[in-house]
Amino acid sequence: MRLKTMLFPLLFSALLLAVPVQADPGMTLEQIAKLQQVGQVAVSPSGEHIAYTRVVPRRPGVDEDGPAWNELHVIDAEGVSRAFITGQVNVGQIGWMPDSSAITFVSSRGDDSQAALYRIPVAGGEAKRLLTVGTGVAGYSLAPDGKRVALIGTEPLDDEVQDLHDKGFDQIIFEEDWRPRSLWIADLNDPDPEPVATEGSVQRVQWSPAGDRLAIVVTPRQLVDDTLMFPRVRIIRPDGEELGRIDNPGKLGQTAWSPDGSHFAFIATDSIHDTREGRLMVAGRDGGEWLNLLPGLEGHVWHVDWYGDRVLFISYEGVEARVGHIAVDGSDEVTLYHDEGVIFEGLSVAENGRLVFPVNSPDHPREVYAAAEAGSDVERLTISNDWLDDVAMARQQVVRYAAADGLEIEGLLFWPLDYQEGERYPLILAVHGGPEAHYSNGWLTSYNLPAQHAAAEGYFMFYPNYRGSTGRGVEFALTSQGRPAAEEFSDLVDGVDYLIEQGLVDADRVGITGGSYGGYASAWGATYYSDRFAAAVMNVGLSDKIAMLGTSDIPQELYLVHYLTWPWDEGGWEMYRKASPIYYVSQAQTPILILHGDADPRVDPTQSRILYRYLVLQDDPPPVRLVLYRGEGHGNRRAAPRWDYSLRLMRWMDHYLKGEGGEPPPYAIDYRLD
């Protein structure tokens, strides 16, 4: 890829083999807490302007607590970025009017009681509320004529049921009283449109550029399991009449109409048992049969659009990202951009061929990048954190090692900022969730995995893509299927051993952390592999496979793409039991900090309570602490719980990997900012 000169320093610094010159002591937790980044990106149809959202965290302990704000900004034809809607706002689902005159978005503003569709002129002026439906706009697509809009929302309760709710009869009938999302097609000036009859629950809608049909994604029910495993594409007329369907198996990713409306591209799976969507498919305008354009791809496609009559895509291959396009018959594949440390996270294409991407790299979180046309120079257009230029960054290295059975495993290693050759350092092992996810060679520092701060404090931090991860194709992703906590977790220990053998890591000072499936790995490290880890921090992780299946909102997903066996099937109870960290609590001696949102629907907080209780009931229990975050779900969204998490994580690691160890540090936290 040809990059503008201004980008060379940004990419080159991540590739240096020498330790960076220290301009300061490195990144602090407070700096991580204030990191801003680009969210959504949308180029105008004309290609002249780029709209994007900027994610602005609240200051913990200073601002009213809550999730980050999402502002609206616009880059003009000269490359100058201007703030359009800023402050305490949440702007989402940005798009453009077909004539490029205005930006559309979804928000709840002023006196709004629910999310509505808005429009703001690109030439300036106030945002105008257009309309809302049901209990609020959950999704929308503008017709190519700019006069109509398709909207998704949940119909409100009828008056009788609402009256009962108001009187306190608001009990939950578990998995029975769900309400479907409906589709409305309305004139932009119609304040009270009627829903269109469709089957199931509507998740997404896209108007064909030809204007005569829409693609909708429907699920049997509005339950998380259905939205993950059973989304299907239906092609309909504006009046709701079905023209065709795509009965894709399993999970479904992004979809995109060709500019002339003759083809429909989508990202799906080859079978219901694929752990993650990642196959690039194309069908005709009425659906029906589809063609896998990249059948031998050893990677996962997660973003799709069109460039003229060619399918444009982003594929994640190993720890890198590749942008390419291909003909609709699967021929003439062309790679446009594929460079180390440049991680493309989305696509937006103008009618004149201008390409816009959100991009992260080892040197910065997500920013706006653009190219005048496919294959031309890519230029960075935004700088969300100018202070990063003054922060000493740790070396980030791609590492490959052989697992016990010879399978090659990749990962990203952060070096201590003050590394001295010949010395051994403590290590924090960072395990991703899923396991159908992966780490890319880009920006990896966050509130729960603070790599740059850990490096500044004298740690190695290692991010392995163990078997079952995405980015290596279907076969690699399926290698852990039906074998939970087996080779996938031995890959982690093999990675630690590799770093020890290289003379880098002190074997007696190794910690492990992660969230969700990474939390599961952390619990496994603290119990089954307790002799290998001196500290563990488990986040929204599972400890009892049997209880997990019965309390999660994704039981079908767990069965179809993870376990392949129900507990009551032959050998099922034994497999579930032996893959549960609580089964090994009697051998646990690793100090473990357990963190969980008390409103987590994915991994019920009882998973953390069970592990805590079983550990403290032992005759010689290890140091253990359980922290529950009020109102948080599967990961923390609010500023204060995130700040608390960062402080507790690093204090626990410091205490047991660098400090005196023994009893846990006091549970009270000093929340003062530096």
List the helices and strands and how they pair.
Layout: H1 8-12, H2 29-33, E1 37-43, E2 50-56, E3 69-75, E4 81-85, E5 92-96, E6 102-107, E7 116-121, E8 128-131, E9 139-142, E10 148-154, H3 159-166, E11 181-187, E12 195-196, E13 201-207, E14 214-219, H4 224-229, E15 232-236, E16 242-246, E17 255-257, E18 263-268, E19 279-284, E20 287-292, E21 300-307, E22 310-317, E23 320-326, E24 334-337, E25 343-344, E26 348-349, E27 355-361, E28 364-371, E29 378-380, E30 396-402, E31 408-414, E32 425-431, H5 451-456, E33 460-465, H6 474-477, H7 487-501, E34 505-515, H8 517-527, E35 535-539, H9 545-551, H10 555-563, H11 572-578, E36 592-597, H12 606-616, E37 624-629, H13 639-658
Parallel strand pairs: 32-33, 32-34, 34-35, 35-36, 36-37
Antiparallel strand pairs: 1-2, 2-3, 3-4, 5-6, 6-7, 7-8, 9-10, 10-11, 11-12, 13-14, 14-15, 15-16, 17-18, 18-19, 19-20, 21-22, 22-23, 23-24, 25-27, 26-27, 27-28, 28-29, 30-31, 31-33
